[in-house]
């Protein structure tokens, strides 16, 4: 698959809320969906592909993480000139579903790697450590609170 999105640079100390706001203003998701053959077609790539992603991925230049906001698209999809992309080989994901109030679920993200490891998964890494992880805001799990006002945030790591 190809991840297409906007790279906001060093993720350390990034203002994710501002990045997401900018991504909506710049129509990042619409551009990816149109490049993938339209909204309906773009959502057929894999189960839960009707999700927007906040990706932290190792930068080959710095060894730190770059903060990206975007979506997965079919391999070879042309990215808009104002967006970038990362090509991913076929691989497995370890996914944590974090259930709670939207303003609380993000605070539980640091526990996900530990939970996946405890479940027997090995998080992919390179000489710098973990290769990448991402928030997957899947519709409607994350976008439509349940009767208790809770959402489910998917948090994913590339695993062996």
Describe this structure in words.
- The chain is α+β, with helices and mostly antiparallel strands and 160 residues long.
- The chain has 5 helices and 9 strands, in the order E-H-H-H-E-E-E-E-H-H-E-E-E-E.
- It has a 7-stranded antiparallel beta sheet with strand order 4-1-3-2-8-9-5. A two-stranded antiparallel sheet has the order 6-7.
- A hairpin with a 6-residue loop joins strand 2 and strand 3 (65-73).
- The protein is globular, with a radius of gyration of 15 Å.
Structural Rg: 15 Å
Gap between N and C termini: 17 Å
The counted number of beta strands is: 9
Q: SS-based structural class?
A: alpha+beta
Anisotropy-based shape: globular
Order of helices and strands: EHHHEEEEHHEEEE
Count the DSSP helices: 5
- The proportion of residues in beta strands is 35-45%
| Low-pLDDT regions | none
- For the report, how would you describe the main beta sheet? 7 strands, antiparallel
Strand order of the largest sheet: 4-1-3-2-8-9-5
In percent, how helical is the residue content? 10-25%
Mean of residue pLDDT? 91
Secondary-structure topology with pairs:
Layout: E1 2-10, H1 16-25, H2 28-35, H3 39-42, E2 51-58, E3 65-73, E4 84-87, E5 92-100, H4 102-105, H5 112-118, E6 125-126, E7 129-130, E8 132-138, E9 151-159
Antiparallel strand pairs: 1-3, 1-4, 2-3, 2-8, 5-9, 6-7, 8-9
Give me some keywords for this one.
two-stranded antiparallel ribbon, seven-stranded antiparallel β-sheet, alpha+beta, 9 strands
């Amino acid at each position: 698959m190809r991840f297409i999105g906007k790279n906001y640079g060093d993720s350390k100390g990034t203002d994710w809320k501002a990045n997401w706001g900018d991504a909506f203003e710049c129509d990042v998701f619409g551009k990816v969906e149109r490049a993938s053959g339209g909204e309906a077609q773009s959502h057929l790539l894999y189960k839960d592909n009707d999700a927007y992603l906040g990706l932290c991925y190792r930068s080959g230049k710095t060894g730190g993480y770059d903060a990206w906001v975007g979506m997965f698209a079919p391999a070879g999809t042309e990215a808009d000139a104002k967006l970038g992309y990362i090509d991913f080989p076929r691989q497995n994901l370890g996914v944590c579903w974090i259930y709670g109030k939207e303003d609380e679920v993000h605070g539980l993200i640091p526990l996900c790697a530990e939970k996946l490891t405890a479940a027997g998964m090995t998080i992919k890494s390179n000489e710098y450590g973990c290769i990448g992880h991402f928030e997957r805001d899947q519709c409607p799990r994350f976008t439509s609170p349940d009767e208790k006002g809770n959402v489910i945030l998917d948090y994913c790591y590339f695993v062996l």
